[in-house]
Fold this sequence. Notes:
By secondary structure, chain A is of the alpha/beta class. Chain A contains 31 helices and 26 strands.
Amino acid sequence: MQPEDAGEPMDRALLICVSDYRYTEPPHGVSGKLPAVKNNLPVLREALVRAGVFTHEDIVPLSSPDFAEAARKLQRVASEAGGLLLVYFAGHGAIPSGGDELYLQLCDAQVFAGEHTVFNAAVSFSDLMGTVLATSRADRIVVVLDCCFAGNAARVWEHFEDKRRVVLLMSVQANHRIDAGAPDTPTPYTENLAELLGREGGTTVSRLTALLRQRMAEQKRRTLRNEPWQPQLRADAGAEVTLGRKGPEVPLLVPGGSGPAGPGPDPGTPGPSPRPRRRLPAWTAALWRRPRALAATWSRARRRRQHARRGAGGGKRPSRGILLRFALPVLVALGMLGVGLYGPLGLAGGDDTHCAPPLELRVLTDPDLEDTFRTAADAYLTSEANTTEAGCRRTGITVYSAGSSDVVEALRRHTDAWKEPGADEVDPQRDIGPQPDVWIPASRAEVDRVLEQQDTDAVAELEPGERPLARSPVVLAVPSRLAPEPLNEVTGRPLTEMIEALTARAEDTGVRRPDPEFTDSGLLATVGLYGDTAAVARGETMVRQPGPPSPTAGDLLCALPDDDAVDDRTAALVPEFLLISGVDCEGTVRAPRTALYPADVPGMDPVFVRVRWDGGETDATARDAAVASFRDWLAGEGGEEVFARYGFRDPDSLEPIDEDVDLDVVSYAPSPLDASAGRDEMERALGAYQAYGGPGRVLFLLDSSGSMAGLWEGPSGGPGLLRQTLGGLGSDDEYGVWAVADTGDGPYETLLGFGRHWRRDAEEAVDERARVRDASADPHAALLAAFDEMEDRGDDGRPQMIVHITDGRHGSYLEGGRLREVLDRAGAGGVPVTVAVLGSGGCDEGRPDQRIAEVSGGRCLDAGDDVGAALHDEIARIGTGDD
Amino acid sequence: MPRRLTALLALLLLAACTGGGGGTPEPAAEEKPGTIVVASGRDVTGSNGVRQRLIDAWNRAQQKAGSRYQARLVELPGSADEQRSQLLGALQSGSARYDVVNLDVTWVPEFAEAGLVRALPDDLVDADVIDPVAETARWDGKVYAVPFNSDVGLLYYRADLLRKAGVEEPYVPEGFTWEQLRGHITTLDDRLGAEDFANGWTTQLDAYEGRTVNVMEAFATAVPGLRLVDEDGRYTGDVEQLRRGVREFVRRVDPAYVSPDAKKHDEAESTSEFTVGRTAFLRAWPSAYPTLYRAFGKRLGVAPLPGRAVLGGQNLAVTTTSERARKATELIRFLTGRLSERCLLEAGFAATRGSAYGRSPRCPAEISAAPAPSPTGEPDEVPRGDGGRPGLSDLKLRKALERAVHRPRTPLYGAFTQTLITQLGPLVEAGSADEDELDRTARRLDEALRRALPG
């Protein structure tokens, strides 16, 4: 971007020549490649330099770009130009009908003809105009189109209020197709244009057009309708542009006509150009803040056109049916953002409004932030910012969350599988959720962790915002009766010191932290726990607890009051905002808490990240605009209101947005405050957490009795679940798989012997050997054998787990004395048993599987938990695997 | 006329080109054989992978016929909201490629109107498809999505508790009303102790689609023939209709009858609450049956929901961007045909075709997802299909489908359901409302729906 006062304004040219088209076969391909167009680029470039219009450095040549690249370059070049901006396009041009729009097709263009016709990967001329007008401060803009139907751009140009800056050269008159010529020469129009430029140097565009017409006539060029081929020009009255070294800019004698240029500037005519430097129109700034959100501009132009059309009385207005039929492709091509678009289209037939389905944004966030951003999205959906003049919603939004380390890993290494799930078990579409358009991690450091280690061939590109949306420190929430006196100890000390002081005050005090792999608040807390000295063991000892950690900070605060004794003497490492807004388990009496602010625990600083997917450019501009609008709303008053309600702090001042906070719970301006985490400290903390205790040891018991027959097939069946969890185990972990069915040789059969395995070998063993047996299972005997097996391997401090995948139908095998025996061993063994019960209700209070899991410190998972994902998370905590 | 216009438009579009060096549009060619990607939500119904088995069967047939087409099932997350978001976002932007998408019945108008799925041959939905189910296939007079499996709200109850309380059989007679249901709950309250059950009934009132389903069932019961939208999906309701509907809904969430936890429950959680014996009645889909039967055996009763029940289910559609649309349509024809519907029924789904419920041939063994009877001493397998479900005969299920009502059919369904969920949130929380509050809620809802579905 050129600074306001940077000397000579920069001239820039973007030459787009599309000769190679990716899709050229019916039913959706364009009608063939254009070898001739390939020759246009060097010829025109040379001519422009030779004529002194541009230097080589000024020119950005684009040979057969795809839509995304063309859009990016257009924005960049347009924003860089301060003096003269030239945009040239040669390639296929298409129109939805004889109507007043023109689509310029890029190399990945496709056409979906039908009831709702779609031009994929084609930029409409309106969009191109909108982009250059909104993005560029160039004094003079020249657009040259060499394609079929180029003349159809003229009518679009007419409707732009701001068209004065744009001079438009078109290869052919409206509604005419033209021949591209022989494959080894440039197209006729460009060949002549280049030659004239080179020869004339310093000529005006109107003179150039006149000469072009003359030459084309001399050459007896004809369109495919066999009519004389007449290049066109549109320029506002009084506007003229000189291309080349010499000559002042002169007004046209015949605006938009074909006559030769006049003798010189008319002193009586207001100075045509250079026009004063231009700021973005106020409405653009207000609505979108950034020029990248261009759809507003385009749509505004459309709205004006539509209004103009209605106002004209509609003598030539097509019938409603036809208008809609032809309007829909435009609408779809715009990605259905339809800023101000649908209303006028629907209104064409009467006073009723017709809203098209809005563009859908997929917004992924941290599990602890899901409530906040869902509330924000709900408010945004009905806000003015998301409503067109016709009262339609521009955008729909779905907010969802997934485990934070899974998300980072998927964005680093599995974007390809996220886009196109393969036969592999790695399937982020299924296990994490939709491919996000927007990702809002709880910490900026997560974005940097992805960027630092993202695969070079990743198919998702991240564009993080610079400023956090809000902040919330991660605090040590201590039962108020245990809060330090005096209260000046609430800040300024490292976390471990605070915990030591707390336990010094009350010996039986415990500290809990949410799962560092599942939510950033847990990982941020872990950064402080391990401290500078990376005292991992000491830190982990401080937060040791029976059973697995709560998945999220919200879950942790909800779980503590389950046991009053625990609640009263346990401090929780949670984001401060949850202490202000509360958690969604009201009705529970909880111990009042006071927030302490450790100096070395970084806070949450959720940041807005645009995620772009390769191939996801069909509605790129509209999607970008929709994303930008939501982002700006979040960063503005709308978002602030939600963040205030949820107890967040201002990202800059670090003060609570809602000043009316309960000072018995939180401090107003604690200092110092560790505001943001660093990428490396997060990476280190997570790595140390995962490695703590060394490689894991897991024994899988797969119920293979006859009653599993109905729960066997597919990814949600017993073997399918088992396969999915293997990704959480690395080659250093030890594990084995037993098929539990009493076939006469004992309570189990070994499918995979205990030891280290390559994942593929393990999967093969499961695939080949796991099958339903014509036998019943004796889980009592199998579990006791499993405890023996784990005991035999000794207690060397390594993380261990027994995983029991079953349908939960144990009959008398887990009743009475047998159940008691299993419970006794489970309680004494120190090996948590995680039970995955296929079938709803298997983990209800009092069920044998639930009791075994609870007493052993494991988890019981059933259909209410999304068993696959939850089991994967459990295994990931034990193992060293990395997907 | 529309067909001719479309064809003309197609011609115009395909001719829209620079005459590529003398090149003319190429003649229509056969589509390229390859993989047909079928996107469907994670199957949480415990159907033992019947969808995958049907696709496997089609693939085998293709292979046998020497075809180079294969279909591949891609699973989406279990949450319907996330499925919808991914399908919409991916088809709009092109971020993922799908040829066939499995759409919840309420999404069909949205996907059709947005041009994301194609119009399909009419004969894919023939007279065999049960009436209200068949209606979910169409938008703007054309078939866009073919019914794959259906769903309808049912009332499950504890027959043993009703017996113990001395309620006379039949416990849930034909034409059973909500008033009678409340009467039963009062009887149970009077005659049984807290050790028998804690609350009358439970359902799904959390802030998701389940709440919308429950609200619409109350509305449709209170206002016979209620539509709320016209054929274009534009709002046509009024305050009076909404007031009556809201009043009925509030009666249903009265804490004297409903479990206080229902407001945080989805399908799995409400089923679980019933399974552990905390409530005597449950509103749930047919897919809950196997779990409940395992828990209660013959102590379980099933009946049509009192009042009106909402129709659920999923339909298969071909995406606009599919490069194998012809073959994808052929795949859908197979997946929704008589044989497949029979297999789906036997696997525990509500079939969409009347013939599946009759004496049609059984699902072939190589496709059948129903497990073979266990010869072991383990508890009995759940009887499935062919009248083998105690308390839930095929006939009963089919009748329930035939009487089911639609949620509003609108291309703006996302806005509709989000509005309903948020506007009725306070009532769900409060569990009661006086006349003034009812009136205010109805007015606010009317205004919000008017904004959400302009018309």
